[in-house]
Write a structure and sequence with these properties.
The protein is an alpha/beta fold and 490 residues long. The protein is built from 15 helices and 23 strands. The strands form six sheets. Strands 15-16-17-14-13-19-20 form a seven-stranded mixed sheet, sandwiched between helices. Helix 1 runs parallel beside helix 7 and helix 7 crosses helix 8. It is globular, with a radius of gyration of 24 Å. Bound molecules: nicotinamide-adenine-dinucleotide (NAD).
Amino acid sequence: MLDLKMYINGEWRDSRNKEKRDVINPATGEVFAQAAEGTVEDAKEAIEVAKRTFESGAWSELPPIERASYLFKIADKIDEYHDELTKLETMDNGKPHREADGDITDAANCFRYYAGLITKPDGQTYHVADPMQAMVVREPVGVCGLIVPWNYPLLMSVWKLAPALAAGNTVVFKPSEVTPVTPTKLFEIFEEVGLPKGVANMVMGAGPTVGNEIAESHDVDMVSFTGGTKTGKHIMKAAVGNMKKISLELGGKSPNIIFADSDFETAVDWALFGIFSGSGQVCSAGSRILVEESIYDKFVDRFVERAKQINVGPGDDENTEMGPLVSEQHMEKVLSYINIGKEEGARLACGGNRITKDGLEKGYFVEPTVFVDVTPDMRIVQEEIFGPVVVIQKFKDEEDAIKLANGTDYGLAGGVFTVDGAKALRVIKKLRAGITWINTYHPTYNEAPWGGYKQSGIGRSLGTFGLEEFQEIKQININLQVEPIGWFSK
Ligand code: NAD
């Protein structure tokens, strides 16, 4: 049984009230770890430590090349513990090894990317009238509160921690209460590479207590949050007291548009990957497939045939192609959406049930589920289900496809499949979404900005934009002629 503690000011701690929370393997329903259940007081202490450390300059005033050297060491350690981290990620989140394996590699490379970026030129000079010289510099924001979800426990943590630390901030980080295992291992790595005490602090615990304190505290200068849109709205409200900077990566209901002239098998294959990888628990999941009417029936038949063949099982079985859902509570939510779909009159083309056979009965497994004959107003078309559930809609032409694609409150991602390059780009440019793909779905790069339009968020992770989120911008105007202005006569 793993015993997970919080990390505050370079020390491993239980929570003040000594409470623990069970951490469950979603493939077996077994408790394999217990995590300290932090309190508001624990969060306050971590914030105070982060504030004091920021003001000391011990990290923010370190030459960027030195901060970068810590980040490179962290990346190397992630590589060194790659296999252990992969196994832990699978136990905690349920994702198959091949998915966890990619996440761990990306996490190491994210640290490398920001280690490199922070030593590169930034800022600007701008031309103004003599005798003034003007320039722009970037500075750390201060104390950054980082709150992450459970679907990529390590990677979502790293998308925030790497740029926030590279920029010279100090941080108070909260993992999801459902998946604190690999984030804890990451903080062990921070300790191992000798990251100065108080720079990175981790408080575990519930969102409405610990998370809310981080979002609300006047000693936190920025809150960077990834999670559901409803929680994101709470964060915005909580952050208003001291007008802290916010960055929100929220939910989605992303369209994947398949034109009749696409390469058929390629489109089916990527569309399956778009929704069923991560068991559909991916913010950018292609959970609405829009198919041109002339190939609609053929597409549905082939898609359903392939969906039925997906090998669902525990993530540590090498034959597994799709793992369980992350928790019993989340499984119940997904199953309730399947019921909503049936009640709304959508036709279930396959799936729809919990899987309880072949030794999977204690885990939280749900069949790949496909709904057809849906209308745009249905809840299963509008709301994020965050599970292996997809709706397949029919469209008439390009204009109709764009209208349907943009017809939700979300705007995170979207894909287009066609061999007509001009049409692909025309459609992508009309999509109100921040992450888009042509003839592919899901590939994500540390170098490219990640984030949504509309209610899918504010700001961007990754790439140069992801670093700028964690920086303030300052203009400096210098008078090269040091003499009075003489504006007033006396
Ligand atoms: P969630 O919103 O329930 O929780 C996310 C985090 O917020 C957790 O750490 C939780 O403890 C904390 N939290 C909950 N209530 C809070 C409150 N009142 N104040 C402060 N913190 C609070 O989300 P989840 O169920 O963990 O994750 C799934 C969601 O995350 C989906 O909607 C998914 O689309 C989204 N997501 C978005 C992205 C993206 O990049 N846009 C990436 C991954 C996941």
